[in-house]
Design brief:
With 703 residues, this protein is α/β, with parallel strands linked by helices. A hairpin with an 8-residue loop joins strand 15 and strand 16. The structure holds (2S,3S)-3-hydroxy-2-methylbutanoyl-COA. It holds the Pfam family ECH_1. Pathway: Lipid metabolism; fatty acid beta-oxidation.
């Protein structure tokens, strides 16, 4: 190689080789999850060469340092050119052909490529709390290092399809029953693995999964799997590829199937869908980082929680804490409201128990942690108090004034308001640093998104405590600033305006909703409006107009509400609901829209599904760009997390900002201008600079 060729720096040494007598131990040190990063394959291959050349070595144990076995390929390396990507397939091939027994010693989570590597070993042993799985489908890819060919050779077609299409891990005990694990090690894993390795050191022939046959193939199994993913993975690419590859494993020799698997993996990895899912994977984790709040910021301990209001939201919020063993005192204004609220909580738990997801004993344990009360005095000891009453500023202010008098010093005072000014609420207390917004999404015990609303004076400690708490209760916390609707609901306004505009100018409501179904949304704006209740938007628009002295709004949807059609709750809204919740286009509404257009002198025009979809998706993104500029959201990726976890935006599109970046922001601006929609200044600037929202985030976060 000529001297001036730039030497690619040697990868770091991430694998330590050591001896336990006649067993060579390869320990991977690549915190935090021992991802299969550059340096890991090199270390493992070197270790195997050492074992091969040393006759005193009778067997090899591979084990993860720190808290887990290899948790998968390093997702960050997916964008590397193929020749620079860590050679996972080559490492596993070397294991598969190795002439001495190799034992994977698993603790923590052996996932994806990590588990594929374990399947390439002769044997696998694990601690009892270890988990193994192939979650690649959740990243829009497929097990690309032999998993689609080896897994069915161990567990059969049906179970292999189940595991790879769900992407969910199985516990060590179940893995042992399935034949994926040879032994559960009690006590020290390394010692257990070494002892196991010694016991099998002379066993020949060495077991090789790649040499086994696949059991359980039938046309019906594959047909059922293909039918199933039409519902569970609507519009996605990789689930179908997984099914095809498992079917291939039943038809061709291992090496042929393995080769084709490698090709299909590259196809899936380079798809916009995988980029979207990988974007969300990292975005979810990035959202937990608060740019100007140091990781060392002290946290307050949350041992007990108070909830004010036992309505739908208050009850759901309380359940989040009961579920993780945190006692809750819930306060209402009347015994009847309290009884009703507790009844709903109990019924929710009992329904979960009926589905076998909770024991009756757990129901009682959780209900036992719930203390009903009619007095604020009972909140005096709470570390966190969450107000969840109806959206009226005067009522909320009165509550926070009372809390200021009753709550102990250091208690965090949170409002669950979905739109109101948290600064205004904080101002009625003498402790604005302890006041924050915790905006849960209904149903609060189910929806994973939690908008953590940072008021001007919210202290870093309170912010950091609430972010940690969101993870503890299984929520995805995203910090947002104070403005009407914060981030999620604020973006709904132009989204809904655009939907209404499409209908006003010629589209039918069902076409507008269908366009968002095509994007991957479970529900379009009109279905969502009918479900939430059209009267809520109607009332808040009027309230806002009254406050600001603007003229009363007039829109064709308002006419629907004025007919008493409030949505599902009145059996009719934009759609008719002849049987339960299934929306049926309504001739009456079609006529109402026609006459409204005539009244406004609007000439009807056609819209293609593509334009209908882009107008709506870009309306979301455009407002997101404004939100970013105002500093209401830390990152564009935070906005994506909000829409994926709170509003059903398809994760495989990566969220509204990522989706726009995928289209090319230059193209987006051109589309918006063609639609007569003013692009946000930041969007226009990024488009002119040929950048994406990810570039913006990296620039802003200095990454
Ligand atoms: N690659 C790169 N970084 C990863 C990573 C991975 N596989 N897994 C986690 N991280 C980072 C994560 O971004 C975070 O970084 C830190 O580690 C802690 O993660 C060929 C192609 C293992 C259950 O899909 O499910 O193998 O925020 O906060 O809650 O077939 O991480 O600290 O900077 O999630 O304790 C398959 C993905 C890959 C597993 C641990 N494997 N990871 O959860 O920690 S594709 C996966 C997880 C593959 C092959 C294919 C979880 C975890 P930061 P964390 P955790």
């Amino acid at each position: 190689m000529s001297s001036d060729t730039a030497q690619t720096p040697a990868p770091p040494r991430l694998v330590q080789s050591s001896r336990e007598g006649d067993v060579l131990v390869l320990t991977i040190h690549n915190p935090p999850v021992n991802a299969f990063s550059p340096g890991v394959p090199e270390g493992l291959k070197a270790g195997l060469d050492e074992a091969e050349s040393d006759d005193s070595v009778r067997a090899v144990v591979i084990i993860g340092g720190g808290r887990t076995f290899i948790a998968g390929a390093d997702i960050k390396t997916f964008n590397l050119p193929r020749e620079q990507a860590p050679d996972l397939r080559g490492t596993i091939a070397k294991l598969d052909g190795f002439q001495k027994p190799t034992v994977a010693a698993i603790h923590g989570t052996a996932l994806g490529g990590g588990f594929e590597l374990a399947l390439g070993c002769s044997y696998r042993v694990a601690t009892k709390d270890a988990q193994v799985g192939l979650p690649e489908v959740k990243l829009g890819v497929l097990p690309g290092a032999g998993g689609t060919q080896r897994l069915p050779r161990v567990v059969g077609v049906q179970k292999a399809l189940e595991m790879m299409l769900s992407g969910n891990p199985v516990k060590a005990s179940q893995a042992k029953e399935l034949g994926l694990i040879d032994e559960i090690v009690e006590g020290d894993l390394l010692q257990g693995a070494v002892a196991f390795a010694r016991r099998v050191a002379d066993a020949r022939p060495l077991p090789r999964i790649s040499e086994r046959e696949v059991e359980g193939a039938s046309p019906e199994v594959f047909a059922a799997a293909r039918e199933g993913i039409r519902k569970t993975h609507r519009g996605q690419l990789s689930p179908g590829l997984i099914i095809d590859l498992v079917e291939l494993a039943t038809q061709v020799p291992f090496d042929e199937g393995h080769r084709i698997e490698g090709e299909k993996f590259m196809e899936a990895k380079d798809s916009p869908q995988s980029r979207g899912l990988r974007h969300i994977f990292f975005a979810e984790r990035e959202a937990a980082k608060i740019a100007d709040v140091d990781r060392s910021t002290p946290r307050r301990e949350i041992r007990t929680v108070g909830v004010i209001g036992a309505g739908t939201m208050g009850g759901g919020i309380a359940m989040n804490f009961l579920n993780v063993g945190v006692p809750v005192t819930i306060v209402e204004t009347s015994q009847e409201a309290l009884d009703r609220g507790l009844g709903i909580i109990r019924r929710n738990y009992e329904n979960t128990a009926k589905k076998g997801r909770l024991s009756l004993e757990d129901v009682e344990k959780r209900m036992g942690l719930l203390t009903p009360s009619l007095s604020y005095d009972d909140l005096a000891g709470a570390d966190l108090i969450i107000e969840a009453v109806f959206e009226d500023m005067a009522v909320k202010k009165a509550i926070f004034a009372k809390l200021d008098a009753v709550a102990k010093p250091g208690a965090i005072l949170a409002t669950n308001t979905s739109t109101l000014d948290v600064n205004e609420i904080a101002a009625v207390t003498g402790r604005p640093g302890d006041v924050i917004g915790l905006h849960f999404f209904s149903p609060a015990n189910v929806m994973r998104l939690l908008e953590i609303v940072r008021a001007d004076q919210t202290s870093p400690e309170v912010l950091a405590t609430c972010m940690d708490l969101s993870k503890k209760i299984g929520k995805v916390g995203v910090v947002v600033g104070v403005c009407p609707g914060f981030v999620g609901n604020r973006m709904l306004v132009p989204y809904r305006d655009q939907a209404n505009e499409l209908v006003l100018r010629g589209a039918r409501p069902q076409d507008v909703d269908a366009a968002m179904h095509a994007l991957g949304m479970p529900m379009g704006p009109f279905e969502m409006g009918d479900m939430a209740g059209l009267d809520i938007g109607y009332a808040s628009r009027r309230e806002a107009a009254k406050k600001s002295g603007e003229p009363m709004p007039d829109d064709w949807v308002d006419r629907v509400v004025e007919l008493g059609r409030k949505g599902q709750k009145t059996g009719a809204g934009v759609y008719d609901y002849p049987e339960g919740r299934r929306p049926v286009p309504s001739p009456l509404i079609e006529e109402l829209i026609e006459s409204y257009r005539a009244e406004k002198g609007i000439e009807r025009r056609e819209f293609t599904p593509d334009e209908a979809m882009k107008r709506q998706a870009y309306a979301l993104m455009n407002e997101g760009a404004r939100i970013l500029e105002e500093g209401i959201a830390q990152r564009a990726s935070d906005i994506d997390v909000i829409y994926v976890f709170g509003y059903g935006f398809p994760a495989y599109r990566g969220g509204p900002m990522q989706y726009a970046s995928e289209q090319g922001l230059k193209n987006v601006v051109a589309d918006l201008e063609r639609y007569g929609i003013e692009p946000a200044p930041l969007l226009r600037r990024l488009a002119e600079e040929g950048k994406t929202f990810t570039d913006y985030d990296q620039g802003r976060m200095g990454r």
